[in-house]
Design goal:
The chain is of the alpha+beta class. The chain has a single domain (3-297), classed as Thrombin, subunit H (Beta Barrel), CATH 2.40.10.120. Helices cover 18% and strands 36% of the residues. The protein is built from 4 helices and 16 strands. Strands 4-1-2-3-6-5 form a 6-stranded antiparallel beta sheet, with helices on both faces. Strand 13 (234-236) and strand 14 form a beta hairpin. It is globular.
Length: 300
């Protein structure tokens, strides 16, 4: 059913890898996805991936600031030994799990996204790859017209990079992370389901925009979950048209507990259904229009 669509979607679905080294020396990574929108290099992804990057950068900057301040204190010739030790102690200690170094890889060496436009309430973020060559992408996506035939029961597919783990190493001499051999290219994995329901978000309090947005903050729900590594990736139909951007997974209680086979008498296990939530095309296209991003829109 999705054979042709799964040949098309990988052309505009790229991986993002966030690498991190802790103060204790442990290296790890988080993997997500993003969609390249047009020939100008604009991309769309999940806000929580961009937010994680921002928090990692903040942590690394905190570490650099502390190192610089300690170096300044220790090199200050006007301080005696006791005063120097006292001032260093007053800086506090960084924990082993605090961030020492971090970086992001946007699917290709040498490209960055200097600035993001974000819509946190809808878990949406857009940015522009720099530098960018339009020939890097063979086909750009078409987004589903949200005013036409947006009906539950439609078969949809999610795409991203789950079931793949990367443990980078830190090369101090090069001041950069190194991905182990065999890490790239990341294997794509699709999972299908049907569109089940919709959810509109009402933002109140300090997080609410100063003026009402001219478009809805809306999610669509799918009968299957989004998988880790698919965040920010496309949710598309059998023609490869993008209906949503994968955001998160919800666990819906089924209202009963089942006995655990082979367990102690009376032991039960809570039953639930995993469903996925993706940012609706109405929200995506509305946000694009607000920023001035051109995108292809379906005729159906």
């Amino acid at each position: 059913m999705f054979r042709n669509a799964c040949a098309l979607a990988p052309r505009f679905t790229w991986p993002v890898i966030l690498s991190r080294r802790s103060i204790g020396g442990d290296c790890s990574s988080s993997i997500g996805a993003f969609v390249i929108v047009n020939e100008e290099g604009w991309i769309v992804t999940a806000f929580h991936m961009v937010d994680l990057l921002a928090k990692m950068n903040d942590g690394a900057q905190k570490t650099r600031n502390r190192e610089a301040e300690e170096a300044r204190i220790r090199s200050d010739p006007t301080l005696d030994k006791r005063t120097r030790q006292k001032q260093v102690s007053s800086l506090g200690r960084l924990g082993k799990e605090d961030t020492d170094r971090c970086s992001v890889w946007w699917g290709r060496d040498g490209v960055t996204i200097p600035q993001f436009h974000t819509l946190p309430a809808a878990d949406l973020a857009v940015g522009k790859l720099e530098p960018f060559d339009k020939t890097w992408v063979a086909d750009y996506p078409t987004f589903k017209n949200p005013s036409m035939n947006f009906e539950p029961g439609t078969s949809l597919c999610k795409l991203g990079f789950p079931f793949h783990q990367i443990t980078p190493t830190w090369d101090a001499a090069k001041n950069s992370f190194v991905l182990p051999p065999g890490s790239l290219p990341l294997p794509l994995f699709p999972i299908d389901g049907i569109l089940t329901r919709f959810a509109d978000i009402q933002v109140v309090g300090p997080a609410a925009p100063p003026t009402p947005l001219p478009f809805p903050l809306r999610f669509l729900e799918t009968s299957t979950p989004g998988l880790r590594g698919q965040s920010g990736g496309p949710i598309f139909d059998t023609q490869g048209t993008v209906w949503a951007i994968q955001s998160r997974t919800f666990h819906l209680s089924l209202g009963f507990d089942a006995a655990v086979p082979g367990a102690k008498s009376g032991q039960k296990e809570h039953q639930f259904l995993n469903v996925g939530h993706g940012v609706h095309a109405a929200t995506i296209l509305g946000f694009f229009a607000q920023i001035g991003i051109n995108a292809n829109v379906s005729t159906y």
